[in-house]
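Minutes, methods subgroup
Present: GH (chair), OT, SY

1. OT presented the first of two proteins processed in the latest run. Sequence and structure tokens recorded below as shown on screen.
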Amino acid sequence: MGEQFYQRPSKQGAKYRKLQSKIYNFLERPVGRVALFYHVLVFCSVFLCLGLSVFSTIEVHGEEAGRILFHLEIIIVVWFGLELIIRLWSAGCRSRYQGWLGRIRLIKSPFCIIDIVTICASVVVLSGNGDQ
């Protein structure tokens, strides 16, 4: 039926894998000031939501803190959802997580399960508070 066709990997493919690798390392193995700043920003935003949740239970600050918390929760759910999608995409740079089965292996890891449960729970809570 013919000979097998050998196609040399393109430079664009190499650039694609390099970008995947950089993003994966940025999210999974943070090194440097930019990565440290990003992860501290994520921590502070989660901590701010926690603080606003406490303030929303106090009558004096409840209404304003609840309103701010609602909008901040929307931003964080979108942010974490995009980060999860980017993390799933960038994990393809590692042979362990290549292909659909590799991505499923990544999704079954404890941190991804926590991310997915947190995002889903936040979406459920936000959908119930949409009338505020």
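2. SY then presented the second protein from the same run.
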Amino acid sequence: FTSTRVFYRKNLILNLHLDQNRFSIPDSRIPSSMLFLFWCANEHQQFRLAEFESLADLLDVTLVWVFKSEEYPWVVLDMASEQEAVKIISRSVSVKYCLHLWAEGDSFQDFHNNLKTFPFQEQSKWLSEDISFKVHVESFNKKINGEEKLEKIESLSYIPFLGPVSLSNPQAVFGYFEFHGLDPNNIPEEPLKLLFGRLIGEGQREKITKLSIKKRKFIGNTTMDPQLSLLMANLGKVDGGRIVLDPFVGTGSLLVAAAEFGGQVLGADIDYLTLHARTRPSRVGQKIRAEDESMLANFEQYGLTSRYLGVIAGDFSQSPWREQPWLDCVITDPPYGIREGTTKLGSEKDYTNTSIPEQYLENHFPEKVAYTLHQLLMDLLNFSARSLHVGGRLVYWLPVIRQNYRPDRVPAHPGLRLVADLEQVLSSHTSRRLLVMERVEGEGLATVSKELTLFREQFYLPLSANISRKERKERIKEHGHLNLSEEEVKQFSGKSSRKQLDAQSATNGQ
């Protein structure tokens, strides 16, 4: 690098100082390559960094964080080459745009002063007269109209663009981004951060639209939305040719996302009617299911049939799978007894000395009993430890009562290393945590905290009838959750017993 280049890069790193606690400057070395800005969607921010780290592991990319944040809508990475940045955006659904970062600033003056020092001659091939271009303008937390966008573009007149402007089919795109804080009720007049650079490419956000459940052929009550499904596939390091299993497959949304990223997918479920699309339709206004609705129809719809290995009807508590490492990823959203029941094969009757008459066996549906969340999680971790290759991943959702959750209560197994523990808040009382675990050397059995698996028992507590809205807000502000005492839980549980029985009856009747 030229001395000008080194000077610019040192100052660019030191100027990224929105919050000194949110990033670390990479040792004391002079950056070896280029800085890349990843401008991210303002959705599911809590999954963003884990997705970056999983993709880096999958794609063999080294991450050197220059600015690392879940809160702000961007991150900055020092990467060895543009090709490594392209690898990340070829898979990421969190990223909207990736730019080779040329300048940034905390004010208009700082920004333009920094950009003017950029060594444009080193990027002359993108500024030459035979390269058409356009400038994309985007603002976070503040709407700007077309006239304002044009003014901001014209303020960049000192950049030596020599080629023609092309809004429809440019050969080079440059990005100008403004950040106006995080509070929509307190928007500053001027941006708190401005960033500019050459657009390298876009993330895979279009896959969210492609896999939209609004247009999907076969869906159910608990079909996972495509964005979370794709994120789970990335966290599971799903890739071409890798074998992926969902043991609680439902309508197969997680498998569709895994297949979209190249996985060879298969599933299982105890619910025979769901697997064969014989349950009630979940779309508003639809009375009966169409004749061509099926699990396979979804894969045909997206052109993914070559990656669909099939599904089986089976009881996960009595696993039909061979006990040896054969999977690369287990990705699932287990039922937890709220919208869908949790059952396994069994009976409370004594059949020791009796059997089902042979003439009834062909059309016989086995009896089912309750499958507790505690036992389900034990089975899931033990199965994953037996069935995953070393380096394979288990990605699953765990519903929790927020005040009952503690990191030391996370389900564990000697052969599974916890990689990520990410929370999606559902209410002031409940959330679900996306747990990512990787198979490592080690044997033994799973350990699951019973206190953490009381989700269904405490989900129906009649909180609104016992705690005023004002008090709920005060508790959440102070504790982050309702902070119910043991006495309150017992008191509310007694009042909710009738509701729990009604809900259980409804669930068992499905």
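Chair's summary of item 2: The longest strand covers residues 388-401.
Next meeting: continue with the remaining queue.
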